[in-house]
């Protein structure tokens, strides 16, 4: 069962694919993997070269989706001692 986000048409989930993680529709590339590659220092251009099935629009939508999801969460932080 494929489920798409109403605001992000490139993002979908399917319990049978990638353990139900949000991913780029039509691929097995989780949004979290895109974030990990970018946070490790890979550029968008390098990511596109390494994964030619992705488009720049896919990457930008993964970032936008992630930012939106972070707005809806509360993360309890502890004061550092």
Key words describing this protein structure:
single chain; 81 residues; mainly alpha; 3 helices
How would you explain this protein's 3D organization?
By secondary structure, the chain is mainly alpha-helical. Helix content is 40%, strand content 9%. It is built from three helices and three strands. A three-stranded antiparallel sheet has the order 1-2-3. α1 packs across α3 (56-71). The radius of gyration is 14 Å and the shape is globular.
Quote the beta fraction: 5-15%
Percent helix: 25-40%
N- to C-terminal separation?
A: 47 Å
Give the radius of gyration: 14 Å
Largest sheet, if any?
3 strands, antiparallel
Q: Name the average pLDDT.
A: 92
Quickly give the structural class: mainly alpha
Strand order within the widest beta sheet: 1-2-3
Number of helices: 3
Give the SSE map.
Elements: E1 3-4, E2 11-13, E3 23-24, H1 31-39, H2 44-50, H3 56-71
Antiparallel strand pairs: 1-2, 2-3
Helix pairs in contact: 1-3
Question: Would you summarize the structure shown here?
Answer:
This protein is mostly helical.
């Amino acid at each position: 069962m494929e489920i798409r986000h109403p605001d992000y048409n490139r993002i979908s989930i399917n319990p049978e694919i990638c353990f139900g993680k949000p991913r780029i529709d039509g691929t097995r590339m989780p949004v979290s993997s895109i974030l990990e590659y970018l946070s490790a220092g890979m550029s968008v251009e390098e990511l596109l070269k390494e994964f030619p099935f992705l488009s720049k629009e896919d990457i930008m939508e993964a970032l936008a989706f992630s930012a939106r999801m972070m707005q809806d969460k509360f993360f309890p932080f502890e004061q550092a001692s």
